[in-house]
Q: What sequence folds into this?
């Protein structure tokens, strides 16, 4: 469903991403790994439209999307989280989820001012979807708290729930396990797998937690210094001498 | 034909005169922006206070019977720079430092409040009426045909060019050579990192406010003597113009501020001469809007990469 | 101690330089000459007292802070002293009812001057609520808000003057036209970063003012437009035939209208005009409140706030930031247009002086003081800022000085304002 070909991104004199290609198929969990500063997040930013790639092609659902505005790409069903959690901090948890459903609710001004039946119906549907996902990520009890006051792990889960209420087909997670404790990481592991199995969502993942990556990925891409280094199943990657070298340095 | 050319040259001279003072004020915006990424909204008031202090110094000296020009200039410049810098320091300390790192809107609002406060401080303490001061420097050179239109360049204008040139050179040398200048550049690159490396970033930020204010005071002194009129509200327009100059040249860039000031000054005096005086402000605001829309980085500015 | 002494000396020196030249000396004209005069001796006393105070406070900073720390647990907003959420919820309905009732009764229990002042307050409430959408909710600093106010005012003034249009026809038009201006301005500039946006809107406000001053043929230039008709009360007439007439609150009505007192067979009371204007303003404020209250609980209102909180996250969720900003900007402008239209009708005379940058700052001060996003806060702030200078005449001179100071202090002490916005509590169905 997502195919990236020969993606390159240049900032001034720095070639941050150089010829990266990757594919994500329906109901797949794909990980992108690599040392810090390898350009993984830049790849994410290029795919999701926050950066305009210098060269290369990004196709989503068969449609070329490179250079499209970010919000339009998101509306095609590709949503993402961020390395540093980005919530609407002074809004409540439930409001965060309602904002995310902007596209699905009734945005007609007049019907909202008059609270027409169709407006009420759409609002209550949005509310139910929000409640459903809050329950799924175990945040129902804090639904009316301000998002900025949640514990870090809760904020991470809220960010994923906020993506899921938009009913995406591809979810992109940028280091979702960063800063989580082992128990929370295990829960995250389960959640991601469940997204794939129960909701038919593909997941593209940047992650440093190798336990998580090796456990749930269908395929893995390794990027080092902006260039693709290796790809394959978790077992292939574990056995790949180049990858070991990139991670551990040369003996 | 000669007349038309001379008229044009005259406008050019006038434009460069105002433009150089805009450039001096613009430095303050550009330096502060370069380091903390915020607009010092109260900067125009610092310029206005500089004008007032210079007027006081010049008037005071003339009451004492001292009219020897070098002394008059030295005392006017030094006293206005001292007072304005102190105001620059106070603005940073009160309206910016406590608010660093939060929502960008908040320091901007506090700076607007500060600007409003200073304007009214001067209005109440010095009165709302225009203050007119007789010219200290008179005369100039005329050139052109004896009978007919003569272009002129006054001695005051020449002094403005020279003073601007000296200030700019001094600042450039200071930034590139001195220890504090180096610290300024480092802080502009990366505030957090500079702090970790042992640079007292608080002092560096305060220093940029002070330096900017001192240059605004130079502009206030010169322009005050050039026009001979001041009131508590002149800072608003001058500040807005200088900000336009800074943005036009590329905010954060010192040569940009100079270039932007000159372009703005010249286009203003051309508008006033060939179109209408009333609309010269509209032209500069219009220019500001157009630059921000089509090239927000200005002529010499570097593009910013959005951090995600 | 040594360290404290030098910093205390420095602070005292700074205070001296900030206060002495401008307060102690005065540029005045004597005959034809400009001279430097010294202020009265008392002023020097104040300066000396101020310098000494700063010196000693700096010197004993730690001790004072320690004392203060003991006295007060922690500084906070007024909401710390307000009743808890639960009691507040119980109090809110009767409280609101009481306020509405009081507002309705006001013109009948107070004298004419107080009613007139209250009308002015209501105009500022409307402006504050409108700007609150842009600044408080959407987080866009608009420093040219007064331009939209001017558009509304001139719309009515010009249409009434040149075409004899009535207030009721111009009111929606004024709002619409202001919204259109907001839209046209917003379209290109809303891509800009926050502080650039502030400056561009400021420039726009100034351009409008300069145009109003110089397009003399159209706007009357600095002389403005006078003789703007007061609003009429539409009424149904059955005699001589069934028709709608405008009731005027004057002794004799102009062509085609009927005086209010004649229509109801009462004797003429000059105060009735003031009362009517007040009630009209009140109606407009209620309408504004109602609309904005609904907007906040609608997708568009939530999107405004989300945008203020995190623009990048908004984009990643498929929200079109330009469209959302534009809607806030346009909506805010529309309310300024309504307010302007009413202002022109109330004053009967307008000129560019009413639409200067200072006015924008005052409206901003109302939003800032009231608490960005909070409706009740904005209302209270509008009352405070308009009434205070009227209560004490001596205060008038220092009014703007205080506004400036207040904005700085509020930003440092409590950027959320006196009454921070309350988040709506949403009850979810628990399966």
A:
């Amino acid at each position: 469903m997502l195919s990236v070909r020969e993606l390159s991104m240049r900032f001034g004199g720095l070639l941050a991403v150089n010829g990266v290609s990757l594919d994500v198929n329906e109901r797949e969990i794909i990980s992108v790994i690599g040392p810090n500063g390898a350009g993984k997040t830049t790849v994410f930013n290029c795919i999701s439209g926050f950066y305009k790639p210098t060269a290369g092609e990004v196709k989503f659902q068969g449609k070329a999307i490179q250079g499209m505005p970010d919000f339009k790409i998101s509306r095609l069903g590709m949503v993402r989280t961020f390395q540093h959690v980005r919530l609407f901090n002074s809004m409540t948890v439930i409001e965060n989820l309602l904002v995310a459903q902007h596209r699905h609710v009734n945005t007609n001004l007049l019907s909202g001012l008059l609270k027409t039946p169709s407006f009420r119906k759409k609002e209550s549907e949005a509310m139910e979807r929000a409640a459903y996902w809050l329950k799924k990520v175990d945040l129902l009890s804090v639904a009316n708290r301000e998002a900025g006051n949640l514990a870090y792990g809760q904020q991470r889960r809220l960010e994923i729930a906020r993506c899921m209420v938009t009913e995406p087909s591809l979810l992109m997670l940028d280091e979702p396990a960063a800063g989580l404790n082992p128990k929370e990481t295990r829960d995250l592991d389960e959640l991601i797998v469940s997204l794939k199995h129960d909701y038919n969502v593909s997941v593209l993942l940047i992650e440093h937690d190798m336990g998580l990556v090796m456990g749930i990925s269908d395929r893995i891409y390794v990027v080092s210094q902006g260039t693709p280094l290796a790809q394959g199943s978790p077992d292939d990657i574990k056995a790949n001498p180049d990858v070991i070298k990139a991670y551990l340095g040369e003996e | 034909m000669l007349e038309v050319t001379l008229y044009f040259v005259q406008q050019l001279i006038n434009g460069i005169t105002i433009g150089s003072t805009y450039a001096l004020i613009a430095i303050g915006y550009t330096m502060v922006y370069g380091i903390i990424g915020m607009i010092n909204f109260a900067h125009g008031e610092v310029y206005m206070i500089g004008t007032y202090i210079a007027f006081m110094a010049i008037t005071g000296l003339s009451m004492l019977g001292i009219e020897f020009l070098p002394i008059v200039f030295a005392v006017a410049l030094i006293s206005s720079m001292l007072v304005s810098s102190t105001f620059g320091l106070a603005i940073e300390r009160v309206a910016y430092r406590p608010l660093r790192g939060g929502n960008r809107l908040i320091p901007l609002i506090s700076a607007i409040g500060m600007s409003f406060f200073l304007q009214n401080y001067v209005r109440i303490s010095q009165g709302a009426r225009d203050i007119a001061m007789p010219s200290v420097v008179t005369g100039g050179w005329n050139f052109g045909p004896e009978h007919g239109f003569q272009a002129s360049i006054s001695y005051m204008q020449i002094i403005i060019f020279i003073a601007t040139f000296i200030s700019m050179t001094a600042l450039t040398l200071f930034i590139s050579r001195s220890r504090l200048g180096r610290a300024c550049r480092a802080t502009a690159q990366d505030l957090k990192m500079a702090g970790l490396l042992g640079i007292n970033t608080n002092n560096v930020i305060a220093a940029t406010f002070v330096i900017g204010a001192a240059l605004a005071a130079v502009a206030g002194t010169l322009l005050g003597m050039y026009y001979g009129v001041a009131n508590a509200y002149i800072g608003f327009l001058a500040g807005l113009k200088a900000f336009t100059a800074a943005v036009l040249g590329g905010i954060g860039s010192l040569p940009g501020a100079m270039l932007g000031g000159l372009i703005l000054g010249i286009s203003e005096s051309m508008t006033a001469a060939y179109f209408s005086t009333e609309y010269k402000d509209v032209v500069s605001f219009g220019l500001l809007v157009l630059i921000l829309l089509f090239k927000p980085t200005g002529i010499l500015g570097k593009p910013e990469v959005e951090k995600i | 101690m040594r360290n404290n002494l030098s910093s205390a000396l420095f602070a005292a020196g700074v205070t001296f330089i900030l206060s002495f030249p401008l307060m102690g000396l005065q540029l005045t004209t004597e005959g034809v000459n400009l001279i430097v005069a010294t202020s009265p001796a008392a002023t020097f006393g104040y300066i000396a007292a101020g310098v000494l105070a700063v010196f000693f406070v700096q010197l004993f900073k730690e001790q004072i802070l320690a004392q203060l720390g003991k006295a007060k647990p922690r500084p906070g907003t007024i909401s710390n002293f307000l009743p808890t959420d639960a009691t507040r919820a119980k109090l809110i309905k009767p409280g609101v009812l009481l306020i509405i009732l009081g507002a309705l009764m006001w013109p009948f229990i107070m004298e004419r001057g107080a009613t007139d002042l209250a009308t002015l307050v209501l105009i500022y409430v409307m402006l504050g609520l409108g700007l609150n959408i842009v600044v408080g909710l959407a987080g866009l600093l608009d420093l040219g808000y007064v331009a939209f106010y001017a558009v509304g005012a001139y719309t009515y003034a010009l249409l009434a003057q040149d075409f004899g249009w009535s207030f009721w026809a111009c009111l929606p038009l004024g709002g619409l036209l202001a919204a259109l201006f907001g839209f046209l301005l917003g379209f290109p500039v809303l891509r800009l970063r926050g502080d650039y946006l502030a400056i561009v809107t400021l420039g726009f406000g100034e351009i409008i003012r300069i145009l109003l001053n110089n397009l003399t043929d159209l706007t009357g230039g600095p002389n403005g437009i006078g003789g703007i008709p007061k609003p009429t009360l539409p009424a149904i007439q059955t005699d001589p035939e069934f028709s709608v007439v405008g009731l005027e609150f004057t002794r004799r009505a102009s062509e085609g209208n009927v005086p209010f007192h004649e229509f109801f067979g009462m004797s003429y009371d000059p105060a009735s005009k003031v009362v009517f204007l007040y009630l009209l303003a009140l109606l407009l404020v209620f309408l504004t409140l109602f609309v904005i209250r609904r907007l906040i609980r609608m997708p568009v209102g939530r999107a405004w706030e989300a945008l203020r909180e995190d623009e990048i996250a908004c984009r990643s969720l498929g929200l079109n930031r330009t469209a959302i900003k534009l809607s806030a900007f346009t909506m805010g402008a529309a309310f300024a247009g309504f307010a302007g239209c009413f202002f022109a009708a109330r004053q009967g005379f307008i000129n560019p002086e009413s639409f200067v940058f200072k006015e924008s700052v005052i409206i901003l001060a109302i939003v800032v003081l009231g608490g960005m996003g909070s409706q009740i806060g904005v209302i209270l702030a509008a009352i405070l800022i308009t009434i205070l200078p009227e209560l004490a005449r001596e205060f008038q001179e220092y009014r703007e000085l205080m506004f400036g100071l207040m904005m700085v202090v509020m930003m440092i002490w409590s950027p959320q304002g006196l009454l921070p916005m309350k988040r709506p509590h949403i009850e979810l169905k628990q399966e």
